[in-house]
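**Sequence, structure tokens**
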Amino acid sequence: MLDVKRLLKNSAFANAQNHKKPGEADCEGERKEEKKQLVKVNIDPFYTRKSATDQTLIFESRFESGNLAAAVKVDDHDYHLLLQNDVNTNGHTQWYFFKASNLVSQTVRFNILNLCKPDSLYNEGMKVLVYSERMAAHKDIGWHRAGTNIGYYSNGLRRSEKGGI
């Protein structure tokens, strides 16, 4: 059984979310006036490939609006994902934004465990919005709808009265 509370508490995101990196804005989002250009901060990944044949996906969401809290590999083609709650809500999570890399033309399944809506347009045929750097470079296609076998259903997780899982 997946211990969601322990996973979120011990996730690298939870441990790193309050540590500013050089060049990042402070909590109020204020930047010094003289810093008008964007500053790119190199961040070490939480996971690095073990070998050239390692098919483990590498997830990242330490960027503006990124909200992936944790990713758990079930097998080479199946991942359980937990999202950070939306800001200024009582524990609601209605959207997601993260990067996955090390994809090698394979089919993978993302099981987002803590979306807690009663229903979703995914059940009506809506597809996920994705951006592929490869498609943008080779086919001039940026953001587009994609994915197959997309479904949304209750998984039994319930929010506590305080808003968390």
